[in-house]
Protein backbone atom coordinates (compact mmCIF):
# COMPACT_ATOMS: atom_id res chain seq x y z
CA UNK A 1 0.00 0.00 0.00
CA UNK A 2 1.53 3.27 -1.13
CA UNK A 3 1.21 6.38 1.03
CA UNK A 4 1.29 10.02 -0.09
CA UNK A 5 1.91 12.91 2.29
CA UNK A 6 0.65 16.25 0.97
CA UNK A 7 2.48 19.15 2.64
CA UNK A 8 0.91 22.57 2.11
CA UNK A 9 3.15 25.58 2.65
CA UNK A 10 2.97 29.36 2.50
CA UNK A 11 5.91 31.32 3.94
CA UNK A 12 6.66 28.71 6.60
CA UNK A 13 10.30 28.27 5.58
CA UNK A 14 11.44 28.44 9.20
CA UNK A 15 9.45 25.28 9.97
CA UNK A 16 9.85 23.35 6.73
CA UNK A 17 12.88 21.19 7.48
CA UNK A 18 11.48 19.65 10.69
CA UNK A 19 8.20 19.07 8.84
CA UNK A 20 9.70 17.35 5.80
CA UNK A 21 12.27 15.42 7.85
CA UNK A 22 9.52 14.05 10.10
CA UNK A 23 8.03 12.35 7.04
CA UNK A 24 11.25 11.22 5.38
CA UNK A 25 12.38 9.58 8.64
CA UNK A 26 9.24 7.42 8.91
CA UNK A 27 9.86 3.67 8.91
CA UNK A 28 7.46 2.83 6.09
CA UNK A 29 8.74 1.40 2.81
CA UNK A 30 6.56 3.14 0.23
CA UNK A 31 5.96 6.85 0.85
CA UNK A 32 5.96 9.83 -1.48
CA UNK A 33 6.18 13.40 -0.22
CA UNK A 34 4.30 16.00 -2.24
CA UNK A 35 5.33 19.48 -1.08
CA UNK A 36 3.09 22.26 -2.41
CA UNK A 37 4.29 25.84 -2.17
CA UNK A 38 1.49 28.38 -2.43
CA UNK A 39 3.46 31.33 -3.79
CA UNK A 40 5.83 31.83 -0.84
CA UNK A 41 8.08 34.88 -0.76
CA UNK A 42 10.52 33.55 1.87
CA UNK A 43 13.19 30.84 1.39
CA UNK A 44 10.68 27.98 1.15
CA UNK A 45 11.40 27.11 -2.48
CA UNK A 46 15.14 26.99 -1.88
CA UNK A 47 14.51 24.58 0.99
CA UNK A 48 12.34 22.40 -1.26
CA UNK A 49 15.10 22.34 -3.88
CA UNK A 50 17.69 21.21 -1.31
CA UNK A 51 15.83 17.89 -0.91
CA UNK A 52 16.31 17.00 -4.57
CA UNK A 53 14.30 13.98 -5.72
CA UNK A 54 13.44 12.90 -2.16
CA UNK A 55 10.33 15.06 -2.47
CA UNK A 56 8.13 16.18 -5.32
CA UNK A 57 7.83 19.96 -5.19
CA UNK A 58 4.72 21.58 -6.66
CA UNK A 59 5.27 25.32 -7.08
CA UNK A 60 2.23 27.50 -7.72
CA UNK A 61 0.94 31.04 -7.46
CA UNK A 62 -0.73 32.04 -4.21
CA UNK A 63 -4.31 30.81 -4.16
CA UNK A 64 -5.08 29.81 -0.57
CA UNK A 65 -4.95 26.56 1.34
CA UNK A 66 -7.80 24.93 -0.57
CA UNK A 67 -5.91 25.40 -3.84
CA UNK A 68 -2.86 23.73 -2.26
CA UNK A 69 -4.96 20.71 -1.27
CA UNK A 70 -6.16 20.47 -4.87
CA UNK A 71 -2.67 20.74 -6.33
CA UNK A 72 -1.22 18.17 -3.96
CA UNK A 73 -3.98 15.68 -4.68
CA UNK A 74 -3.53 16.09 -8.43
CA UNK A 75 0.18 15.23 -8.11
CA UNK A 76 -0.16 12.31 -5.69
CA UNK A 77 -0.31 8.62 -6.61
CA UNK A 78 -0.72 6.94 -3.21
CA UNK A 79 -3.51 4.66 -2.02
CA UNK A 80 -3.75 6.53 1.30
CA UNK A 81 -3.23 10.30 1.38
CA UNK A 82 -2.17 12.31 4.42
CA UNK A 83 -2.45 16.07 4.85
CA UNK A 84 0.29 17.99 6.69
CA UNK A 85 0.65 21.71 7.37
CA UNK A 86 4.21 22.89 6.85
CA UNK A 87 4.56 24.11 10.44
CA UNK A 88 3.59 20.73 11.96
CA UNK A 89 5.35 17.34 12.15
CA UNK A 90 4.48 13.66 12.25
CA UNK A 91 5.55 11.73 15.34
CA UNK A 92 7.83 8.70 14.77
CA UNK A 93 6.01 5.65 13.49
CA UNK A 94 2.80 7.47 12.54
CA UNK A 95 2.60 6.31 8.93
CA UNK A 96 3.10 2.61 9.66
CA UNK A 97 0.57 2.67 12.50
CA UNK A 98 -2.09 4.48 10.47
CA UNK A 99 -1.49 2.13 7.51
CA UNK A 100 -2.07 -0.82 9.85
CA UNK A 101 -5.39 0.69 10.98
CA UNK A 102 -6.51 0.92 7.34
CA UNK A 103 -5.40 -2.69 6.77
CA UNK A 104 -7.31 -4.02 9.79
CA UNK A 105 -10.55 -2.09 9.29
CA UNK A 106 -12.92 -1.37 6.43
CA UNK A 107 -12.60 2.39 6.73
CA UNK A 108 -12.39 5.23 4.24
CA UNK A 109 -10.68 7.83 6.42
CA UNK A 110 -8.64 8.00 9.62
CA UNK A 111 -8.08 11.11 11.76
CA UNK A 112 -5.48 11.11 14.53
CA UNK A 113 -5.40 13.54 17.44
CA UNK A 114 -2.55 16.01 17.79
CA UNK A 115 -0.34 17.14 20.63
CA UNK A 116 0.90 20.71 21.07
CA UNK A 117 3.68 19.65 23.45
CA UNK A 118 7.02 19.68 21.68
CA UNK A 119 9.01 16.51 22.28
CA UNK A 120 6.01 14.29 22.99
CA UNK A 121 6.49 10.71 21.86
CA UNK A 122 3.73 8.37 20.66
CA UNK A 123 2.26 5.92 23.12
CA UNK A 124 3.05 2.23 22.76
CA UNK A 125 -0.67 1.46 22.50
CA UNK A 126 -3.22 3.30 20.41
CA UNK A 127 -6.81 4.00 21.35
CA UNK A 128 -8.84 3.77 18.14
CA UNK A 129 -12.55 4.57 17.86
CA UNK A 130 -14.44 3.44 14.77
CA UNK A 131 -16.71 6.22 13.55
CA UNK A 132 -19.82 6.10 11.38
CA UNK A 133 -22.10 9.14 11.70
CA UNK A 134 -23.44 9.25 8.15
CA UNK A 135 -27.06 9.14 9.30
CA UNK A 136 -26.39 11.89 11.84
CA UNK A 137 -24.94 14.12 9.13
CA UNK A 138 -27.83 13.51 6.75
CA UNK A 139 -30.18 14.69 9.50
CA UNK A 140 -28.20 17.89 10.00
CA UNK A 141 -26.32 16.77 13.11
CA UNK A 142 -22.83 17.94 14.01
CA UNK A 143 -20.51 15.02 14.84
CA UNK A 144 -17.45 15.97 16.86
CA UNK A 145 -14.33 15.91 14.66
CA UNK A 146 -11.78 17.94 16.66
CA UNK A 147 -8.77 17.11 14.50
CA UNK A 148 -6.81 19.77 12.52
CA UNK A 149 -5.43 19.42 9.00
CA UNK A 150 -2.23 17.59 9.95
CA UNK A 151 -4.16 14.73 11.58
CA UNK A 152 -6.22 13.87 8.49
CA UNK A 153 -5.79 10.91 6.13
CA UNK A 154 -8.05 9.36 3.49
CA UNK A 155 -8.30 6.54 1.02
CA UNK A 156 -7.71 7.91 -2.44
CA UNK A 157 -11.14 6.72 -3.61
CA UNK A 158 -12.83 8.83 -0.92
CA UNK A 159 -10.73 11.96 -1.35
CA UNK A 160 -11.45 11.84 -5.08
CA UNK A 161 -15.10 12.54 -4.18
CA UNK A 162 -14.08 15.66 -2.23
CA UNK A 163 -11.17 17.17 -4.17
CA UNK A 164 -10.76 19.28 -6.11
CA UNK A 165 -12.67 21.65 -3.84
CA UNK A 166 -13.79 25.20 -4.46
CA UNK A 167 -10.89 27.58 -3.98
CA UNK A 168 -11.21 30.14 -1.21
CA UNK A 169 -8.74 32.71 0.02
CA UNK A 170 -7.08 32.27 3.42
CA UNK A 171 -8.43 29.39 5.56
CA UNK A 172 -12.14 30.12 5.21
CA UNK A 173 -12.89 26.98 3.21
CA UNK A 174 -10.40 24.27 4.15
CA UNK A 175 -10.18 21.31 6.52
CA UNK A 176 -13.66 21.65 8.10
CA UNK A 177 -15.23 21.18 4.68
CA UNK A 178 -13.07 18.12 4.00
CA UNK A 179 -13.80 16.53 7.39
CA UNK A 180 -17.58 16.90 7.16
CA UNK A 181 -17.60 15.66 3.55
CA UNK A 182 -15.48 12.62 4.48
CA UNK A 183 -17.66 11.73 7.45
CA UNK A 184 -20.73 11.96 5.19
CA UNK A 185 -19.22 9.87 2.38
CA UNK A 186 -17.63 7.06 4.35
CA UNK A 187 -16.88 5.15 7.52
CA UNK A 188 -13.79 6.15 9.44
CA UNK A 189 -11.72 5.92 12.59
CA UNK A 190 -10.40 8.42 15.10
CA UNK A 191 -7.10 7.70 16.80
CA UNK A 192 -7.47 9.19 20.25
CA UNK A 193 -3.73 8.81 20.88
CA UNK A 194 -1.78 11.76 19.39
CA UNK A 195 0.45 10.86 16.45
CA UNK A 196 1.04 14.41 15.19
CA UNK A 197 2.66 17.52 16.66
CA UNK A 198 0.75 20.74 15.97
CA UNK A 199 2.97 23.77 16.40
CA UNK A 200 1.30 26.80 17.99
CA UNK A 201 3.14 30.01 17.15
CA UNK A 202 2.60 33.68 16.44
CA UNK A 203 2.40 33.11 12.68
CA UNK A 204 -0.50 30.62 12.83
CA UNK A 205 -3.22 31.59 10.38
CA UNK A 206 -6.05 30.36 12.59
CA UNK A 207 -5.36 28.04 15.54
CA UNK A 208 -4.52 29.88 18.73
CA UNK A 209 -4.77 33.33 17.14
CA UNK A 210 -6.92 36.37 17.90
CA UNK A 211 -8.42 35.95 14.42
CA UNK A 212 -10.03 32.61 15.30
CA UNK A 213 -13.07 34.13 16.96
CA UNK A 214 -13.97 36.33 13.98
CA UNK A 215 -12.95 33.75 11.37
CA UNK A 216 -15.06 30.97 12.86
CA UNK A 217 -18.44 32.37 11.67
CA UNK A 218 -17.04 32.95 8.17
CA UNK A 219 -15.75 29.38 8.09
CA UNK A 220 -19.13 28.03 9.21
CA UNK A 221 -21.04 30.00 6.55
CA UNK A 222 -18.66 29.17 3.68
CA UNK A 223 -18.49 25.49 4.68
CA UNK A 224 -22.26 25.19 5.03
CA UNK A 225 -22.98 26.79 1.67
CA UNK A 226 -20.43 24.63 -0.15
CA UNK A 227 -21.47 21.35 1.49
CA UNK A 228 -25.13 22.00 0.66
CA UNK A 229 -24.25 22.97 -2.91
CA UNK A 230 -22.14 19.89 -3.60
CA UNK A 231 -23.80 17.05 -1.68
CA UNK A 232 -27.53 16.36 -1.86
CA UNK A 233 -27.53 14.62 1.51
CA UNK A 234 -25.97 17.53 3.37
CA UNK A 235 -28.63 20.19 2.84
CA UNK A 236 -29.74 20.08 6.48
CA UNK A 237 -26.18 20.28 7.80
CA UNK A 238 -25.34 23.09 5.41
CA UNK A 239 -28.37 25.06 6.50
CA UNK A 240 -27.46 24.57 10.17
CA UNK A 241 -23.87 25.70 9.62
CA UNK A 242 -24.95 28.84 7.76
CA UNK A 243 -27.55 29.68 10.40
CA UNK A 244 -24.99 29.13 13.15
CA UNK A 245 -22.41 31.29 11.42
CA UNK A 246 -24.90 34.11 10.92
CA UNK A 247 -25.95 33.91 14.57
CA UNK A 248 -22.34 34.00 15.78
CA UNK A 249 -21.50 36.95 13.53
CA UNK A 250 -24.55 38.88 14.64
CA UNK A 251 -23.63 38.25 18.27
CA UNK A 252 -20.04 39.37 17.71
CA UNK A 253 -21.20 42.52 15.94
CA UNK A 254 -23.52 43.38 18.79
CA UNK A 255 -20.81 42.91 21.41
CA UNK A 256 -18.23 44.90 19.45
CA UNK A 257 -20.71 47.67 18.70
CA UNK A 258 -21.73 47.94 22.35
CA UNK A 259 -18.10 48.06 23.43
CA UNK A 260 -17.25 50.74 20.87
CA UNK A 261 -20.29 52.83 21.79
CA UNK A 262 -19.41 52.60 25.46
CA UNK A 263 -15.93 53.96 24.78
CA UNK A 264 -16.59 56.53 22.07
CA UNK A 265 -20.32 57.21 22.14
CA UNK A 266 -20.40 56.68 18.38
CA UNK A 267 -21.52 53.87 16.03
CA UNK A 268 -19.36 50.91 15.10
CA UNK A 269 -18.28 51.69 11.56
CA UNK A 270 -17.85 48.15 10.24
CA UNK A 271 -21.31 46.96 11.26
CA UNK A 272 -23.06 48.10 8.08
CA UNK A 273 -20.55 46.40 5.78
CA UNK A 274 -20.68 43.18 7.76
CA UNK A 275 -24.48 43.20 7.76
CA UNK A 276 -24.40 43.44 3.97
CA UNK A 277 -22.23 40.30 3.90
CA UNK A 278 -24.65 38.52 6.21
CA UNK A 279 -27.59 39.52 4.04
CA UNK A 280 -25.78 38.07 1.03
CA UNK A 281 -25.24 34.78 2.88
CA UNK A 282 -28.91 34.66 3.88
CA UNK A 283 -29.94 35.36 0.28
CA UNK A 284 -27.73 32.59 -1.08
CA UNK A 285 -29.16 30.14 1.43
CA UNK A 286 -32.73 31.18 0.60
CA UNK A 287 -32.05 30.74 -3.13
CA UNK A 288 -30.66 27.26 -2.51
CA UNK A 289 -33.70 26.34 -0.47
CA UNK A 290 -36.04 27.49 -3.24
CA UNK A 291 -34.13 25.44 -5.77
CA UNK A 292 -34.23 22.37 -3.53
CA UNK A 293 -30.46 22.41 -3.01
CA UNK A 294 -30.45 23.11 0.72
Please count the beta strands (DSSP E, at least 2 residues each): 9
> What do the pLDDT scores average to?
86
Strand content: 15-25%
| Unreliable residue runs | 262-269
Which outline best applies? globular
What kind of oligomer do you see?
single chain
What is the CATH homology-level superfamily of the largest domain? Spore Coat Polysaccharide Biosynthesis Protein SpsA, Chain A
Topology order in helix (H) and strand (E) letters: EHEHEHEEHEEHEHHEHHH
Q: How would a textbook summarize the main sheet?
A: 9 strands, mixed
Domain Glycosyltransferase 2-like: 4-160
Organism: Rhizobium leguminosarum bv. trifolii (strain WSM2304)
InterPro entries: Glyco_trans_2-like, Nucleotide-diphossugar_trans
Protein name: Glycosyl transferase family 2
Write structural notes for this entry.
The chain is of the alpha/beta class and 294 residues long. It folds into two domains: 3-197, Spore Coat Polysaccharide Biosynthesis Protein SpsA, Chain A (Alpha-Beta Complex); 212-290. It has helices at residues 13-24, 44-50, 65-75, 94-104, 134-138, 156-159, 175-185, 212-230, 235-264, 271-290; strands at 3-9, 31-38, 56-60, 80-85, 89-90, 109-115, 128-131, 152-155, 188-197. Strands 1, 2, 3, 4, 5, 6, 7, 8 and 9 form a nine-stranded mixed sheet that branches. Helix 1 (13-24) packs parallel to helix 2 (44-50), helix 8 runs antiparallel to helix 9 and helix 8 (212-230) packs parallel to helix 10. It starts with a strand and ends with a helix. GO terms for molecular function: hexosyltransferase activity. Keywords: Transferase. It holds the Pfam family Glycos_transf_2. This is Glycosyl transferase family 2. Residues 4-160 form the Glycosyltransferase 2-like domain.
Amino acid sequence: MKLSVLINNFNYGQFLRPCIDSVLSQAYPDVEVIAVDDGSTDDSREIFASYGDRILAVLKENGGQASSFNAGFAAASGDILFLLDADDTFLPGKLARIAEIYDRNEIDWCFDRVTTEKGDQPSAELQVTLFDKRDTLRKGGFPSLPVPTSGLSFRRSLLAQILPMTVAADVVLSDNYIKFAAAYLGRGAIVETPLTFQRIHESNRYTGTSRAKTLRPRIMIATGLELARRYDGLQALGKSLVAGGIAETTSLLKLRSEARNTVTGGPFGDAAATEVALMAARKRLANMLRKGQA
